[in-house]
């Protein structure tokens, strides 16, 4: 079934997972089924409920599309805190503890708070400058559009269209005139 090689550090294990069960279903669900098969395999062998799939393993499954995933994969399984991580063999997993992540986020928030706070007056000035710059840009665009002469072909067509609409708009039409001759109202 699956070959198992144990490594000494951190209870890391290497498995070759057969993915033939994914090929039994519909072809447009094979890659999704592969991920399911991998998770079930790791749950069974590592006796855990939380399984996380690494990005390199996910990419390897999906790289040939949904219809043609690999038939088998060699993976390394590493238990970390409350979950088990599965990754392609040879890819280095950089797992950080929750405490380290909390420290990093705290440091980022401190750095953001150390930045110079913007005073209310400064913010209003900056906002007013931005608005005036936008108005200037819009004004320049309008001037450019007006300065460009209309092409010779476009100008006569517009004039003709206006002439055609003008005589019709002056007269009031009876709604029965628009209907075909048989449908005139009496």
Question: Could you walk me through the main structural features you see in this protein, from its secondary elements to its overall organization?
Answer:
This protein is α+β, with helices and mostly antiparallel strands and 186 residues long. The protein contains 6 helices and 5 strands; from the N terminus they run E-E-H-E-H-E-E-H-H-H-H. It is flat. The N and C termini lie far apart (89 Å). The model has no long low-confidence stretch (mean pLDDT 76).
Quick summary:
The chain is an alpha+beta fold and 186 residues long. The chain contains six helices and five strands; from the N terminus they run E-E-H-E-H-E-E-H-H-H-H. It has helices spanning 30-46, 55-62, 98-114, 120-147, 154-170, 175-178; strands at residues 4-6, 13-18, 51-53, 72-80, 83-88.
CATH superfamily of the domain at 4-91: Ribosomal protein L31
Shape, principal axes of CA atoms:
flat
Architecture (CATH level 2) name of the domain at 4-91: Roll
Terminus-to-terminus distance: 89 Å
How many helical elements?
Answer: 6
Q: List low-confidence stretches.
A: none
What is the fold-level CATH name, i.e. the topology of the domain at 4-91?
A: Ribosomal Protein L31e, Chain: W
Average of per-residue pLDDT values = 76
Could you tell me the number of beta strands? 5
The CATH class designation of the domain at 4-91 is Alpha Beta
Write out the strand line-up for the largest beta sheet, numbering strands in chain order.
1-2-4-5-3
Assembly state of the chains shown: single chain
* Major β-sheet annotation: 5 strands, mixed
The portion of residues forming beta strands comes to: 5-15%
Which structural class fits the helix and strand makeup? alpha+beta
State the share of residues found in helices, binned by percent.
Answer: 40-55%
Gyration radius, rounded? 35 Å
Give the topology string: H per helix, E per strand: EEHEHEEHHHH
């Amino acid at each position: 079934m699956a070959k198992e090689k144990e490594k000494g550090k951190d209870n890391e294990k290497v498995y070759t997972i057969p993915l033939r069960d994914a090929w039994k279903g519909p072809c447009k669900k094979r890659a999704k089924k592969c991920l399911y098969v991998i998770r079930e395999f790791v749950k069974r062998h590592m006796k855990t409920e939380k399984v996380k799939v690494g990005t390199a393993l996910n990419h390897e499954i999906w790289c040939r599309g949904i219809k043609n995933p690999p038939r088998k994969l060699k993976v390394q399984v590493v238990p970390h805190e409350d979950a088990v991580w599965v990754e392609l063999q040879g890819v280095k997993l950089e797992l950080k503890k929750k405490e380290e992540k909390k420290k990093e986020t705290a440091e980022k928030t401190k750095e953001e708070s150390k930045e110079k706070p913007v005073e209310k007056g400064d913010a209003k000035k900056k906002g007013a400058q931005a608005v005036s710059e936008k108005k200037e840009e819009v004004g320049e665009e309008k001037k450019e559009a007006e300065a460009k002469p209309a092409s010779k072909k476009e100008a006569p067509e517009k004039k003709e269209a206006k002439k055609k609409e003008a005589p019709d708009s002056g007269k009031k039409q009876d709604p029965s005139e628009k209907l075909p001759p048989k449908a005139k109202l009496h």
